[in-house]
Amino acid sequence: MTNRQEKLFERRKARTRYKLKKNNHGRLRLTVFRSQRHIYAQIIDDTKGVTLASASSLDPETKAALPKKDIGADTASAAAVGTAIAKRAVKAGVKEVVFDRGGYIFHGRVKALADAARAAGLSF
Asked: 37-91: per-residue pLDDT in tens?
């Protein structure tokens, strides 16, 4: 990315994070990081600064759920990560979160992850 694109991304990310912290009402944060090859998700408690659950397309469980072993940059792998993070969150006792998409637009892999997490038991 160019310097201008990075600055715009950081502004979108900061604006999203500000709105979430202003309106989260004590809920935990489900954050998403999307690289070109993989997707990662974490559930973070901002008051304690602790990560309660995490999942990624690099996890062995997630790779086993996918038809091809090396694919991590498609919506199927994002949906598998969303299901995995929701199961781990429910196991940790988390039901309600706020969804932090970062600076990413809510479509494609980010939307697939969110929809799968909702279907697996998280509410946001």
From this structure: 999 999 999 889 999 999 999 999 888 888 776 677 899 999 999 999 999 999 9
**What b/e sequence results for 85-108 when a residue is b if at least 16 CB atoms lie within 10 Å of its CB, and e otherwise?**
bbbbbeeeebeebbbbbbbbeeee
How far is 58 from 38, CA to CA, in rounded Å? 7
* CB-based contacts of 59, cutoff 8 Å, min separation 6: 81, 84
* CB-neighbour burial class of residue 79 (10 A; exposed 0-12, middle 13-18, buried 19+): buried
- Does residue 25 register a pLDDT over 90? no
CATH code of the region 3-119? 3.30.420.100
**Percentage, residues of the chain above pLDDT 90:** 77
- Asked if 67 and 73 count as a contact pair (C-beta separation under 8 A), the reply is no
Q: What is the residue type of 17? A: R
Instruction: Report the candidate in 115, 61, 49, 58 with the shortest Cα–Cα distance to residue 88.
Output: 61
- Residue 19 has phi, psi (to 5 degrees) of -65, -40
| Ranges of each domain in the chain | 3-119
